[in-house]
Amino acid sequence: MFNHVEMKQTCEWIAGRTGEARINQHLRPVVKRLKGTPIAEVASAFCDLQEARHRADYDHLEPVSRPAASASVDDAEKCMAILAKAQRADCEAFYALLALRARIPNTG
Asked: Nearest-5° angle of CA 29, CA 30, CA 33?
């Protein structure tokens, strides 16, 4: 079981949205391995979808249109399809990274 904060942070690493210095040194090789794979697209989309969900849930001035909500659903379904077709080793590395991130503090 993963919490969304750790998942988003891990996805930010893979998507290149945070500096390497912020990644625990023990996790850096796995993060580097996943960059440039289809998993990186999933990681980037996870970040975007998580941010959209937070805006929808907590920013009461943020309008959420039906087309925007539908596009988010489409993006999530696309990610599920990517994961289903991704190389098994990439998926295993991704899930292992998520599990390790849940156990190892982010101390750089």
From this structure: 85
pLDDT average, residue stretch 82-89: 96
Residues in CB range of 80: below 8 A, 6 or more apart: none
Rounded to an integer, what distance in angstroms lies between the CA atom of residue 81 and that of residue 99?
22
Report whether 28 contacts 101 (CB < 8 A): no
**pLDDT tens digits, 47-76:** 999 999 998 889 888 888 999 999 999 999
Q: Which amino acid is at 65?
A: S
Name the packing angle between helices 38-58 and 66-85 (round to 10°).
150
Helices within the chain (DSSP H only): 4-14, 28-34, 38-58, 66-85, 88-103
Residue 7, both tokens: 């998942």
56: its two tokens: 């929808």
Please choose, from the candidates 30, 14, 18, the residue with its C-alpha nearest in 3D space to the C-alpha of residue 79: 14
> Roughly how many angstroms between the first and final C-alpha of the chain, as a whole number?
23
Number of residues assigned to the chain: 108
